[in-house]
Amino acid sequence: MNRVSFIFKDMTRVMAVFPLLLCFCISGCMVGPNFTRPEPAVPDTWVDANAESTTQPTVAEAALQEWWTVFNDAKLTALVQEAFQSNLDLQIATTRIRQARASRGIAVSGIGPTVDTSGSFRRTQADSGGSNSRSSTFSTYLAGFDAGWEIDIFGGVRRGIEAADAQLQAAVENRRNVLVTLAAEVARNYIELCTFQQRLAITSQNLTAQKHSAELTRRRFEGGFVSGLDVANANAQVATTEAQIPLLESNVRQTIYALSVLVGREPGALLLELSKTAVIPPVPPAIPTGVPSDLLRRRPDIRLAEADIHAATANIGVAEADLFPRVTISASVGWNADNASDLFSATSRFWSFGPSVSWNLFQTGRTLSDIELHKALQDESIIAYRQTVLTAIQEVENALIASTKEQEHYQSLQAAVIATRKAVELATALYTEGQTDFLDVLIAQRALFLSEDSLAQSNQVMAVELIALYKALGGGWRREEVVTSGEEK
Q1: Is the distance from CB of 292 to CB of 154 less than 8 angstroms?
Q2: Quick one: which of 400, 432, 409 has its CA closest to 54?
């Protein structure tokens, strides 16, 4: 029990100065520039904001968090939720948060002392030499503790922790960015699937009508009312329309495969579930887009770029700390004895304590070049941040103008479909009565097929542009998701 008391008594004396040195370290200076949050110039309003957008200046947070629910499609919502649970890219982004957190722990460990313990036993035989040499054998027992602490006087370690904090935040924002992209990709592929299925149904309906017209033409040819040219044209149109079906079926399969992989399953996993023809979800009214400055707090890629600037700025301080001397406090406590029974006695005890200073006075400009390197990296991150902001604003503007113009396009196509359906009815009736040739029927049927197909595609484009707008606004992630899962500091 006395030997244990000796150990703790000596270690207490040696380590008693560490709290004082820690206070000095924390209150010491920190080299390198301090991070300043960037304030890029952004416009006050959107160029193509419509009346609904300008009357409501901010976007509701809840509406952006789960924007896919505005399509009111239970299957789409289920696919997005499954992707959030099982997507492999998202799992990779989550592991990178763990990596960043572990790296931060490594950086934090540099702020405090280290203590090592060691013990050894050695049996030695020695010869005394000379004509009457005799050999002797003796044992050596050694045990002790070694402590060391590099005092962070100039803040190099603290700047490293600051950089690690920023890199951890960047990893969090990267995961959020994956969430935004993932939700948009699932929704876009689902809309495309519904569109391919709708176009396939339209093609099949038109094919049925064209086959009926071809049969009617064949009977009229057999009755001597029309020439063989009408029959050939009718059969050619049937074959042309029929040729579109395999391509659309291939598109349906490939889109299902893509959705299966997005939700973390093998390509054919959703074939049974998604093969049934689905209706293209109706596009909801235009959403309030808020103001451009909202993007700075909402879009994860902008927040990620800001965190990169912070990390680059802190790393300049890490590099500049190498210009200054390093002060290390070292301490040792141990026991050295020839007999195991005397190992922890007072007479076998030894200790040492003292500071040491090291300073790289000449490195052929290596440290200065390293500082310039990190300054250049900071400049690069600032430029990348500005580019990210400009790209974000452009994406919103693109989605706004595309959505507005596609709505106009869709309305025109609706009118065209109504008109061509009427034309098909009239041309078929006139042809049956022998008042016109088959060419008019052929032209009308082809126009109807093209206009219905174009209408379905326009419906798809409107939905996809709305998805692009929600993505551009940074929708698809919730702050509490990251916090509750322990993925944000």
Answers
A1: no
A2: 400
434: left (phi over 0), alpha (psi -120 to 50) or beta: left
Q: Domains in the chain, start-ordered, CATH in brackets?
A: 34-114+155-324+366-484 (1.20.1600.10)
The 10 Å CB-count burial string (b at 16+, else e) for 87-109 is: bebbeebbebbeebbebbeebee
Q: Calculate the alpha carbon distances from 448 to 194, 201, 210, 279, 362 in Å.
A: 20, 14, 11, 20, 82
Candidates 265, 280, 282; CA nearest to 453 is 280
Query: 385-388 — which CB contacts under 8 Å span 24+ positions?
Result: 385/38, 385/40, 385/302, 385/305, 385/306, 385/308, 385/309, 386/38, 386/40, 388/301, 388/302, 388/305
The 10 Å Cβ neighbour count of residue 72 is 11
- Give the total residue count for the chain: 489
pTM over 0.90: no
If 0-12 CB within 10 Å is exposed, 13-18 middle and 19+ buried, where does residue 146 land?
middle
Which two tokens mark 395? 């994406």
Identity of the residue numbered 465: E
Q: What is the pLDDT along the chain (489 residues), one digit of tens a residue?
A: 454 454 445 445 444 544 554 554 455 578 889 999 998 888 888 887 654 444 344 556 667 888 999 999 999 999 999 999 999 999 999 999 999 999 999 999 888 888 888 888 787 776 655 566 666 777 787 888 888 888 888 888 999 999 999 999 999 999 999 999 999 999 999 999 999 999 999 999 999 988 988 898 898 888 888 888 888 988 998 999 999 999 999 999 999 999 999 999 999 999 999 999 888 888 876 666 777 888 888 899 999 999 999 999 999 999 999 888 888 888 888 888 777 777 777 778 878 888 888 888 777 788 899 999 999 999 999 999 999 999 999 999 999 999 889 989 999 999 999 999 999 899 988 888 888 888 888 888 889 999 999 999 999 999 999 999 999 999 888 775 554 344 444
